[in-house]
Each structure stands twice: as C-alpha cells, then as structure tokens.
Amino acid sequence: MIGSKGISRRGLLKTGAAAAGVSLFNINHAWSQDVTYDGGVFDAGGATLNVAEWGGYWQETQNRLLLDKFQKDFNCRIQYDSTFPWFPKFVANGPEDPPIAIANWNLPEMYKTAAAGDYFVDVEEIRANVPNVAKLWDFASLGGTGVTWAFSRYCYVYRTDAGPAPTSFKDFWKEEYAGRRGTYITSNTLQMDFFLGSCATFGESETDFDAGYEAMRAAMPMKISDFTGNMATLVERGEVAIAVQSDAEALLQKEKGVPVDLYYWDEYKGILTQTKTISKYADPMSKRLAFALLNRTLEAEYQTAFANEFWMRPSNRDAVIPEKMAALGVVNSADATDGLHIPDWQAYLDEEIDIVETVNEIFAS
pLDDT band at 142, cuts 50/70/90? Predict the structure, then answer.
C-alpha cells in the first residue's frame, strides 16, 4: 500500500514478486517440444548437464549411487550446483535461458518458481518421456509440477523420558512440554507445514492463518532451529522434549539409541518431499539427458539404496524398504501412502510475506 511515507516494505515485496512474473509466460521454442526419450542409453558426446541439488554428504551419496555411473553410461559431464536457493537463479535468467536443466526441490520454492513463469515441463510430458514414472505411487505426480522421488513423513519426535507420549497433533501444546518445545525458522519447509497443520487443527482449514498465529503464540517459548540436524542435537541433549521433525531424522536417532520415539501427524498427513523438475526450455541435449537422469532416479534399486543412506521413503512401488527401516515399522505399500497430503502451497505463498513477518515477530517475543 502507498502511505505518507511511500510504498511500505510489504507492499514493495508483493509488488516486486508480482512484477517478476510479468512477460515470463508463453515463451515458445518449437525445438524444446520435440525432445523425446525412451528409457535407453545414448551417447551425449560429452555434453554438460546442469543439475541443482543439495550439497555435502547428500552430493557425495548422489555421486556414488547415481551420477558417476550416469556420466560414464551417457558420455556426459554433470555440473552440480548445490548453492541453494534456486528461485533467484531461474528468475534472473528467465524461462528461455534456464541455468539448470534438472533441479531437486522442496515444494514451496518449486511452486513459487513455477508461478513466476513458464519454467518447467508439465507432468504429462514427463510421463511421456520418463518410463519409470509409471511405477510410482499416484501421489508422486499429483501436483502437476515435477515428480516426487523420495519423501519423509512429518511427525513429532519426543523424548521417551519426558512424560506421557503424545497421541494427537494438539499434544504438542500440553503443559508438560512448556519451555521444551522445538520448531524451525520460517524459511524451513517443516515450519511452514507445521504452521499449516496448526491452522487446520485449531481453525477451520489450513488457510485459517489467524488460528495458526494463535497456535504459535500458545506454544511459546520454543527452541527455533534452522535445520533438522540441529534440532536432533537439541533433542539428544534434552534441551527439547518434543519437536517438529521428519521421520527420516527421528528414525535415525532412534536407531542410534537416543531415547526418542515418533508421533506421526495422522490428522494432517503432510510429507517432506524430494521433487525433481525438468526445465521446459533447456537445450535439446540437456533436456534429453534430464529425462534420462530422472528416469534413473526413479528406479527401484536406486531408491532402495538411497533410503538405506537417508531413511527417506521411496515413491517407486517396487522399491524394497531397507531392513533397518522395516524393523521400525516403515513399509512401502498403498496403505502407507493413503491420505498423504500436499498443502495448497500457492495459498500459502500468496500470503507468505505476512505469514513470515507475523510468525517471526511471535518467535522473537
């Protein structure tokens, strides 16, 4: 809004976000629509494929389980970008000159990028060119943008020596956890989903943001972490008795003998996804290589090996759950994926600036 002091910070941010999408739609390179892939190996002639994905041990594991062999089989070179976030890079280049041919995302930033322009191949084109999509559970491609290849369930991790076990989403607010609750900074997807779950649980729907704000106030004071690994450390030290967490991290702690257990949000079955997109206007060789790499990412054998490293669940129906995960009750079945929920991220993003500023004010109080 415009007042006596000019455009407000919130107004400027919203205006800028809207302007970013202007003139970015309806790019039409005919050649970009003609790339096809049938699932086989081909010689890319030493071409470079620009990939965006997480760094550190994640990158080391991807190289070992997937990318090193892919480069040899297809005679190509992977240029790996781990300097997140991806959104500014896509918007700076525009849809017709994508800096990345295949990117891995958590959903909120992926949807924000998709809303800013015609950046990504739609699911139907992916399905036509990536044969292994046919082997996925239905939820993996329901969003219309990108394909989910791995995921973890949202849950509470709680110390078993801190009192009665939680039995509902609302138990996070029980008095015995006062001062020993944990969640994340507002830019972390786990906090975003926790906020939406709170809106749905205490209000009329997941977009009842006022109910979510009241829930955040009622939970204070909380330990606010930036990422799951740091939260796991706080739980292990006993500084936090109950925390928002992904089950991959919580199951790993349980395996290590930390006195913790999990309560899954069965009332609000959100998931933390690993979802890959392919850039619509990548050059033809890059686009074909991107289809091939996604196809290999969706293979059951790779997803089993990845799950063994990171405790994340596969989206391929035929992937085998590693024994250590199966021993803790994780299964790969239609029942296990029934009711999994992906929030209306666009509704969240439409109000993201206000949500972030309001929740940050609550956290700082």
Answer: confident
Dihedral sign, Cα of residue 66, residue 69, residue 73, residue 74? positive
pLDDT bracket for residue 19 (50, 70, 90): very low
Pair of tokens at residue 45? 């002639």
Contact 316, 151 (CB under 8 A): no
Give a three-class secondary structure readout of 86-127: CHHHHHHHCCCCCCCCEEEECHHHHHHHHHCCCCECEHHHHH
- 27-85 tens-digit pLDDT: 445 555 679 999 999 999 999 999 999 999 999 999 999 999 999 999 999 999 999 99
The residue ranges of every structural domain in the chain are 29-150+272-335, 153-271+349-364
Integer Cα distance of 284 and 49 in angstroms: 11
d(CA 242, CA 161): 11
Statement: 153-271+349-364 belongs to CATH 3.40.190.10: yes
Three-point CA angle 358, 236, 230, nearest 5°: 45
- Quote the CA–CA distance of 297 and 291 in Å, as a whole number: 10
Span between the terminal Cα atoms of the chain, in Å: 26
Q: Do domains 29-150+272-335 and 153-271+349-364 have the same CATH topology?
A: yes
- Cβ atoms 185, 226 nearer than 8 A: yes
* Residue matched to tokens 């800013």: 116
**DSSP letter, residue 67:** I
| Average pLDDT over all residues of the chain | 91
Structure token digits, residue 137: 């559970």
Residue of 139, 55, 57, 42 lying closest to 104 (CA atoms): 55
Q: What CATH superfamily is the domain 29-150+272-335?
A: Periplasmic binding protein-like II (3.40.190.10)
The answer to whether 152 and 248 have CB atoms below 8 angstroms apart is yes
Provide the 10 A C-beta neighbour count for residue 36.
11
Whole-number Cα distances in Å, 348 to 133, 178, 208: 28, 28, 10
